[in-house]
Amino acid sequence: MARRYVIAGNWKMNQTPAQTKEFITALAPMVAGKDNCDIVLCVPFVDIATAVEAAKGTNIHIGAQNVHFEEKGAFTGEVSANMLKEIGTEYVIIGHSERRQYFGETDETVNKRTKAALAAGFKVLLCVGEMLDARQAGITDELVAMQVKLDLAGISADDLKNVIIAYEPVWAIGTGLTATPEQADETCGVIRATVAKLYGEAAAKEIIIQYGGSMNDKNAADLLAKENIDGGLIGGASLKTDAFTAIVSAAQ
Ligand code: PEP
């Protein structure tokens, strides 16, 4: 089975509900009929209901940027899977480097959140990637393989079908620095080989692996042309309808 491109926007902490409605209303006709990839927007929690409503009848899918692993309880500031499900969320980003860097997310909590999200029926965009010092020290491959192993621990081959792995070198996120297509492809290949070791060759061939890190309308085509890159997780450029549409077009 050929892998399908997935182009996902990560809005981070940007856009109010009113801006969300306006953005999706403008974007929908621009990406209409571009059906060779799945199009996802991961928006702030408070924008999800508005985004789902605005995206009804379009080819745009809506995701969240995190989910807690418990069903409910004394976890101030967190949001559960069933809360997100009820308002029409389909995807959830887990383990983004900003969660790992600024909010104490670890491979253990990423694994727990991933399991909870899969149990609730979400598609998970699982983020891994090395810091600059790791790349400079030449340990990117080991580090990324370790993240994949820890983050997927205990996840069945059946559940893996709903996991998309986003390779995001931390030094390339929001910096304007992009991994070269060759660097990105090589590390996505390491991720695919790690999945092969864990789940077998067939699962490795099927799993969708995105690149993320300053992907934009100029560099998307070269990155997406690489064998192991099946899409993009896009921050800054997903906040501009023109740039995001151009990336979607590059995945056709
Ligand atoms: C991201 O937020 O996952 C990301 C890749 O951001 P940017 O495209 O802005 O680097």
What does this entry look like structurally?
The chain is α/β, with parallel strands linked by helices. It has a single domain, classed as TIM Barrel. The chain has helices at residues 17-31, 48-55, 81-86, 97-102, 107-119, 132-136, 140-151, 157-160, 181-199, 201-206, 220-224, 241-250; strands at 5-10, 37-42, 60-64, 91-94, 123-128, 163-167, 208-212, 231-234. An eight-stranded parallel beta barrel has the order 1-2-3-4-5-6-7-8, surrounded by six helices. The longest helix has 19 residues, at 181-199. It is globular. The mean pLDDT is 97. Phosphoenolpyruvate (PEP) binds at residues 10, 12, 168, 173-174, 212-215, 233-237.
What's the structural blueprint in terms of helices and strands?
Blueprint: E1 5-10, H1 17-31, E2 37-42, H2 48-55, E3 60-64, H3 81-86, E4 91-94, H4 97-102, H5 107-119, E5 123-128, H6 132-136, H7 140-151, H8 157-160, E6 163-167, H9 181-199, H10 201-206, E7 208-212, H11 220-224, E8 231-234, H12 241-250
Parallel strand pairs: 1-2, 1-8, 2-3, 3-4, 4-5, 5-6, 6-7, 7-8
Helix pairs in contact: 1-2, 1-12, 7-9
Bound molecules: phosphoenolpyruvate.
**End-to-end gap:** 17 Å
- CATH topology grouping: TIM Barrel
CATH architecture: Alpha-Beta Barrel
| Ligands present | phosphoenolpyruvate
Globular, elongated, flat, extended or rod-shaped: what is the shape? globular
Which CATH top level class fits?
Answer: Alpha Beta
The CATH superfamily name is: Aldolase class I
Structural class from helices and strands?
alpha/beta
Number of helices: 12
Helix content estimate: 40-55%
Order of helices and strands: EHEHEHEHHEHHHEHHEHEH
Total discrete domains:
1
**Largest beta-sheet details:** 8 strands, parallel, barrel
What's the total count of β strands?
A: 8
Nearest-angstrom radius of gyration?
Answer: 17 Å
With strands numbered from the N-terminus, the spatial order across the biggest sheet is 1-2-3-4-5-6-7-8
Average pLDDT reading? 97
| Strand percentage | 15-25%
